[in-house]
Amino acid sequence: MTRDIITRRKKMFNNMVDNSVAVFFAAPEVIRSNDTHYPYRQNSDFWYLTAFNEPEAALLLVKESAEQYQTILFNRTKDPLIETWTGYRLGQEAALKTVSVDQAYPFDKIMDLLPEIINGKCALYHASQLYQYADNIIDNLMTTLRQGIRKNLHAPESIIDWRSMLHNMRLFKSSNEIAIMRQAGRITALAHIRAMQQCKPDMYEYQLEAEILHEFIKHGARSPSYNTIVGSGNNGCILHYENNSERLKNGDLVLIDAGCEFQSYAGDITRTFPINGKFNKQQKEIYDIVLRAQLKAIELFRPGVSIKEINDKVIRIMVEGLIALNIMRGNIDELIEQKAYTQFYMHGLGHWLGIDVHDVGDYKTVGRERKLEAGMVITVEPGLYINKDADVAKQYRGIGIRIEDNILITQNGNEVLTSDVPKLTHEIETLMAKSSY
Q1: Which of 67, 145, 197, 281 has the greatest number of C-beta atoms within 10 Å?
Q2: Are 128 and 184 members of one domain?
Q3: Same domain flag for 164 and 198
Q4: Which of 136, 169, 202 is the C-terminal boundary of a domain?
């Protein structure tokens, strides 16, 4: 990971103009109530450049020229008394090696030292409106420099947002990142398998969520990468359902969208399966449409194509399937042009995946027309959602199905990172027939 971090910083230096400084701030702690906090999670961009997981920190990339640059860290000081209460702090001396920086200073000295470091630089790279405390530091810095002409202080001529540069870098995964994401996919797959094996009628959705979280933690993924979705029956038609409070009913499907966070990288899998272990005729008909669309999409993803191009083909497959079942009626081309399918398929085909589950990076347009390149990781997640109030035959109402996998774009095609969990109907039924309960 250290080699990756140094490589990333060098790329940032290459993108910066001479005589400039880029500043990256750590995420602040968030109070839950009184003197208790939510579990701390580092800002993803800061982590990408440091792998340092403490608040009250800032990384500075100082570039004099293409041959002369340095890295500076501001972080919390060692304090044995505070550490007795809240845990270990790295301190400045250890940070030099652990975070691979040239200099390290106490964070409470940042306003004393920043004017000296940034004085006379032509450009300052800063992501504004990310954290109020960070904006306050930069605003005070600029005021000090602008009002200090008599002290030979000079403020940067421009402030540049570094996000577009860094976020484009994050789109392309290194071999080490890919290895971590493979493991995140494996752990997430094991959790979905466990949920299938433990599922039975009259459980509650939150009990399946507990099985998912158990498997994550068991394999070293201490937290989910997003709030776990366990939607049974019509709840599966709610895209971001998170209540997870309903009882599982015999004869219904359950849709689970869950992913672990392993070594700061996200997994993201969705599987839909029958609560009693057997798909009925209508459930299987809808499921097979979604599965056919997903398998075709995975077959087509490769460098040089876009998510939009593949999604257009997925839409056609699903509209054809719905017409065959008499759920949609009319001319296929007209239905697609009118976007009549959006009552049943209203989201995109996939999104970037990495340190964040909805990872950063430009899609170029809302339609996601950017051409894919080797090293990108995306999700592939078509779905059909037939709400209980939909104007369709009664036997199809309340069926929500999504099938999601994570794929790495390779030089010649793609690699499915989440293939360990079954998705063919007979494989799911066989697995659930071997349930441990």
Answers
A1: 145
A2: no
A3: no
A4: 169
Length of the chain: 437
DSSP assignment of 320-387 equals: HHHHHTTSS-S-HHHHHHTTGGGGT--S-S--B-SSSSS-----SSTT--PBP-TT-EEEE--EEEE-
Determine the Cα–Cα distance for residues 370 and 424; give it in Å rounded to an integer.
31
Q: Please check whether residues 163 and 306 belong to one and the same domain.
A: no
Average pLDDT, the chain: 97
Give the burial string for 313-327 (b: 16+ CB within 10 Å, else e): ebbbbbbbbbeeeeb
Contacting residues for 35 by C-beta, under 8 A, at least 6 apart: none
CA distance 235 to 232: 5
Residues 200 and 133 in one domain: no
pTM: 0.95
Task: Answer yes or no: do 357 and 317 share one domain.
Answer: yes
Q: Please tell me whether residue 241 adopts helix, strand or coil conformation.
A: coil
Out of 143, 169, 195, a domain closes at 169
pLDDT digits (tens, 9 = 90+) for 375-393: 999 999 999 999 999 999 9
pLDDT in tens, 52-76: 999 999 999 999 999 999 999 999 9
For the record, the structure tokens of 199 come out as 């599922």
Q: What's the farthest any 2 CA atoms get from each other in the chain? A: 82
**Rounded to whole angstroms, how far apart are CA atoms 138 and 142?**
6
Which structural domain range is residue 31 located in? 2-169
34: which 2 tokens?
Answer: 């009184």
Give the 3-state secondary structure of residue 148.
coil
Q: Is the domain of 203 the same as that of 85?
A: no
> Would you please indicate which residues are annotated as catalytic (active-site) residues?
35, 240, 257, 268, 347, 351, 358, 381, 385, 402, 404
pLDDT in tens, 81-132: 999 999 999 999 999 999 999 999 999 999 999 999 999 999 999 999 999 9
Tokens for 275, please give them. Answer: 């609560």
| Residue 192 shares a structural domain with residue 158 | no
Q: In the beta sheet, which residues pair with residue 255? A: 231, 272
Same domain, 137 and 186: no
Residue 163 · residue 362 · CB < 8 Å: no
Going through 107-264 in order, the beta strands assigned E by DSSP cover: 123-125, 158-160, 223-224, 229-232, 253-258, 260-262
220-268 pLDDT, tens digit per residue, is: 999 999 999 999 999 999 999 999 999 999 999 999 999 999 999 999 9
